[in-house]
Amino acid sequence: MVGMGSYTRHHERDIMQLTDLIYLRCPTCHAALHLHIGDGINGSVRCANNTHTYLIRQGILDLLARARPSSMAAWSNEWRLTAWAYERIWRPYALSILSGTSFGYDREQAILDGPFAHTRGLVVDLACSNGLYARIIAKSYPQKSVMGIDRSMPMLIEAQRRAVAARLPISYIRADARTLPMRGGVAEGIVVGGSLNEMEGIPQVFAEISRIAAPTSTLVNMALIRSTTFFGKIIQAVLAPGGITFFDPAAMTTQLAHYGWHIQSSTITGIVWFISATRTGA
Ligand SMILES: [Zn+2]
After folding, report:
1. pLDDT tens digits for range 147-199
2. CATH number (domain holding residue 217)
3. Rounded to the nearest whole angstrom, what is the distance from the C-alpha of residue 50 to the centroid of ligand 1?
4. 2, 65, 108, 128: which has the fewest C-beta neighbours closer than 10 Å?
5. What is the value of pTM for the model shown?
6. In what order do the strands lie in the sheet with 53-57?
């Protein structure tokens, strides 16, 4: 067990990395968080004001006590079967289907391998689902702290199961992208793997990403864009009421620039859009 003041990074245990608490703040009152009871497997975390307590269960820190997602796409992630099936069935083929060309994990790995080489410290996988990007980053950059954020507990449990099996020390935290639990300026890197398409309150999410980003931070975002083909438009019109938004690249680029992000590389394959951006306006 690890005690207060002597946190060590564990590589083989099923736990929240307690060293990562320094990056976090109370989502309610914004005070610092510290371990209150127990350990990084089962315990609780309390804020410095001693007013808010959050549970660590099965190694996952739950900073989202009562909120429920309201759109259908977010709801589907609450279903355990979806969490189980996501990386087993859908995710390996998703980008090949959506891009109309062979687009395996090796291509995503290559995209994620470059941008964080010169950063130190924390990388956040925002709305991480089963933690595919978090694992790629934890494997490629073992010196970094890697945190996966999602609001679906079944997704986080599956993500952590996969991280433990791969012996990768990743902290998984249940939180909302619109009110991120990190302190300002702590994230050297942020990755978003398609989840902006399922989120509500995108401007708020951009503002939060920009708040937690360090001045020289790098953002890698994979998003689905509006189709320009006839059938593509029909399919996207069917998906829209389910809470899936398809982006206009020009509009999103403008929005990112507004928050001080400068796009370094941009690749569109079918409707799959990868961008790497750095913070210049901070
Ligand atoms: Zn608090």
Report:
1. 999 988 889 999 999 999 999 999 999 999 999 999 999 999 999 987 777 77
2. 3.40.50.150
3. 7
4. 65
5. 0.83
6. 33-38, 43-47, 53-57, 60-62, 170-174, 145-150, 122-126, 187-193, 213-224, 272-279, 261-269
